[in-house]
Batch of 2 targets.
Target 1
Amino acid sequence: MSDDENYKKILEAFWRAKRDEFDIEDINRLKNELEECILKLEKIIGIKRKIYEIGADLKFTDEEENIISSLEGLEELNN
């Protein structure tokens, strides 16, 4: 997507928010997807802890670490 398209989508989102025009079904679908992501991240973090407890060396890329560390923010967003 071009920057112009992103800009237009952001403006449209603000416009809809200002007028309370939301597609509730779509919001609920997105909320469910977010909940699924949170559950998967919680499992990953649990596995990561167990691996470290047994002394194994597990390497994640910076991008993977950023995703894993986003759990707290996603949980706040979901509440």
Note: Residues 23-78 form one domain.
Target 2
Amino acid sequence: MKKEDWIIVILVVSLIGNVALLIDHRHVNKDQELKHELFYANIWRDLSQLEVTIQYQIDNNWSNETLITQKLDDAIDSIILDTAMENDDDKEDILWKLYEYMEEFRFDGDTLDVSLNDKQRTDYINLGKKLRSSGWTFNAAYDMSWSTIKSKVEDLTLES
């Protein structure tokens, strides 16, 4: 083979290799996006369930207060899981902000048999209102993009 033929073969092999790497890179990026959308969906679902549970307890004269603390724990667990899987420092900071905000409402003690006092009920009522007003509800549009999640977190954690 001539030197020029070798150069052409090398260029073709290089081109095929680069195309394969590009396709693999796109596949990895898509997998990453899907993974994060799943995690964001879990956070959205758990916070929306918490909002519904708080409203249910208000409507039913706080008949099963334990449900609120269990739903809060579920939401916090989802936030922790997503934060642990996040590679982007800015996104991780936003998720930690959400975690720290929700942690303020965590019930001290056994969450299996809960009896809330008036201040805790008021705090949960206000949390339910903030969840609803910031879009963490089943009545809101379902958009799991990072910009939407970030906006909802900022609305929720904004001091009023």
Note: The radius of gyration is 23 Å.
